[in-house]
Amino acid sequence: QVVLTQSPSASASLGASVKLTCTLSSGHSTYTIAWHQKQPERGPRFLMKLNSDGSHNKGDGIPDRFSGSTSGAERYLTISSLQSEDEADYYCQTWYTGTRVFGGGTKLTVL
Amino acid sequence: EVQLVESGGGLVQPGGSLRLSCAASGFTFSSYEMNWVRQGPGKGLEWVSYISSGGSTTFYADSVKGRFTISRDNAKNSLYLQMNSLRAEDTAVYYCAREALVDGHSDYWGQGTLVTVSS
């Protein structure tokens, strides 16, 4: 059973960069994940699919400020040149036969 | 443009039933697997159910197994979630989500419909 672990909160200043982490449970370090953004009162938005080798494929219209990377069982979402509209909850997701799994989410505050 | 529009949410008493719908447009609905995902008040995203493109294969989260039924009508470009024996803990915004053709991640989401289970 795959578990995705995310820090509950993160913060960074306007114009700065922030790196969010999603950690795959032991034995599942090769899994591909996806990152989603959830703003209040809006449906989630797919950001990117992130493979274990660090390659990633972004969703339609996702700015270059959003990028992904990998180190072992950790999957990262980096947002550069932070804007006020980036303040949101960010979720990682993975999948295997019979189920789809979400991490607990990270609430990003832009200072 | 891909669009997913949920409907059917509302207030229902514990033990009651509700049927959610998701109208899809802007893509070949019959080619895509679909999911329902929910978010309870103050909580994170929780996967609820999956259905294959043809509708023959379904999966459910343990929390809803035996109470919820996912289905689809490819002729009507529509996805459904029949929810029976509703509990207070089922209170959430329910989202339909399209699954990418390659891999199992959701690549498009609806705006959600609110289900409130309360007496």
Total of helices of chain B: 0
Assembly classification:
heterodimer
Strand tally of chain A is 11
| pLDDT averaged over residues of chain B | 97
What does this structure look like?
- The complex is a heterodimer of chains A (111) and B (119).
- Chain A is 0% helix and 53% strand.
- By secondary structure, chain A is an all-beta fold.
- Chain A is globular and about 40 Å long.
- The mean pLDDT of chain A is 97.
- With 119 residues, chain B is an all-beta fold.
- In chain B, strands 2, 4, 5, 6, 9, 10 and 11 form a seven-stranded mixed beta sheet that branches. Chain B has a four-stranded antiparallel beta sheet with strand order 1-3-8-7, with no helix packed on it.
- In chain B, β5 and β6 (58-60) form a beta hairpin.
- At the A-B interface, β4, β5, β9 and β10 of A face β4, β5 and β10 of B.
Q: What layout of secondary structure does this protein have?
A:
The complex is a heterodimer of chains A (111) and B (119).
Chain A: E1 4-6, E2 9-12, E3 18-24, E4 33-38, E5 45-50, E6 56-58, E7 66-71, E8 74-79, E9 88-96, E10 99-102, E11 106-110
Parallel strand pairs in A: 2-11
Antiparallel strand pairs in A: 1-3, 3-8, 4-5, 4-9, 5-6, 7-8, 9-10, 9-11
Chain B: E1 3-7, E2 10-12, E3 18-25, E4 34-39, E5 45-51, E6 58-60, E7 68-73, E8 78-83, E9 92-99, E10 106-109, E11 113-117
Parallel strand pairs in B: 2-11
Antiparallel strand pairs in B: 1-3, 3-8, 4-5, 4-9, 5-6, 7-8, 9-10, 9-11
